[in-house]
């Protein structure tokens, strides 16, 4: 299943061209409930015993209180009563930053789909709505009375969120992108980091979307990705290229 929320991918798909689907190669670990386990700890640094309160734990682990359901453990022997909760303890090592990354870090998603695989494509799958504007992807609130789209003022008609099926024309692969000093760089499995202006730059990047109608140029592609994912630190993406079938 492919879920798209990107208008460029949508319009390429609706115009029956080859489409490039790009998704982040990571997902955030799903943590909802946090159990704070305050207690005494002998510090590695000074050898003294310190009591680390629940509030200290919040600060040391840099927890955003609004994002989680948080409870404080009142008695040590009750920890087993919270099997599904993420537990935060005082650390002898004092290295909370490393522990925080380990607990809250991202899980990598490896590219795995093979050429020839058939996938169903949905627009905005999580939305409760079913019909959307063909021009801008906006919600068609009353599909039977849809005339002019309130979002884009066009009357191009509507489409069902279950767009149809695509057949992958090659194996899914991974690219990495970064923006440095205003310039975009990308690597694919076959290339090193590419530089704008470098001979063959656009050529090499075309390989990423293999003549699809998804993006007009490498520049446009990068700008879009930067806007969505902030490429000031390197980010990895998984790329699927597919053709719509049974249209
Ligand atoms: Zn519209």
The largest β sheet comes out as:
7 strands, mixed
Helix content: 10-25%
Count the E strands: 16
Assign the CATH topology of the largest domain. Answer: Archaeosine Trna-guanine Transglycosylase, Chain: A, domain 4
Rg from Cα: 24 Å
Number of domains: 2
CATH class of the largest domain: Mainly Beta
Shape: extended
Please state the structural category. alpha+beta
Distance between the termini: 18 Å
Report the portion of residues in β strands: 25-35%
Mean pLDDT across every amino acid position: 86
Poorly predicted regions: none
Q: Count the helices. How many?
A: 5
User: Any guess at the CATH architecture of the largest domain?
Assistant: Roll
Ligand inventory:
zinc ion
Summarize the helix and strand pattern as letters.
EHEEEEEHEEHEEEEEEEHHE
What does this structure look like?
- This protein is α+β, with helices and mostly antiparallel strands and 247 residues long.
- The chain has 2 domains: 2-28 and 109-125 and 161-244, Roll (Archaeosine Trna-guanine Transglycosylase, Chain: A, domain 4); 33-104, no CATH class.
- It has helices at residues 7-14, 54-60, 96-104, 201-209, 218-229, and strands at 2-4, 19-24, 26-28, 33-36, 39-42, 49-52, 69-72, 86-88, 106-108, 118-123, 131-133, 158-160, 162-168, 173-180, 183-187, 235-245.
- The two termini are 18 Å apart.
- Residues 133, 135-136, 138, 149, 151-152, 154 line the site of zinc ion.
């Amino acid at each position: 299943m492919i879920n798209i929320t990107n208008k460029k991918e949508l319009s390429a798909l609706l115009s029956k061209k080859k489409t490039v689907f790009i998704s982040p190669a990571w997902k955030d670990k799903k943590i909802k409930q946090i159990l704070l386990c305050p207690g005494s700890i002998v510090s590695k640094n000074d050898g003294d015993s310190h009591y680390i309160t629940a509030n200290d734990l919040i600060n040391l682990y840099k927890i955003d209180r609004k994002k989680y359901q948080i409870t404080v453990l009142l008695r040590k022997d009750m920890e087993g009563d919270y099997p599904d909760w993420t537990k935060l303890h005082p650390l002898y090592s004092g290295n909370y930053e490393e522990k925080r990354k380990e607990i809250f870090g991202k899980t990598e998603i490896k590219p795995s789909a093979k050429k020839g695989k058939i996938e169903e494509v949905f627009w905005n799958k999580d939305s409760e709505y079913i019909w959307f504007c063909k021009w801008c992807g906006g919600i068609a609130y009353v599909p039977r009375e849809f005339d002019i789209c309130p979002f884009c003022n066009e009357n191009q008609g509507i489409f069902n969120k279950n767009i149809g099926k695509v057949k992958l024309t090659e194996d899914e692969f991974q690219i990495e992108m970064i923006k440095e000093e205003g310039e975009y760089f990308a690597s694919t499995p076959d290339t090193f980091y590419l530089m704008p202006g470098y001979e063959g730059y656009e050529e090499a990047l075309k390989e990423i979307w293999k003549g699809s109608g998804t993006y007009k140029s490498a520049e446009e592609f990068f700008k879009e990705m930067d806007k969505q994912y902030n490429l000031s630190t390197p980010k990895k993406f998984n790329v699927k290229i597919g053709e719509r079938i049974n249209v």
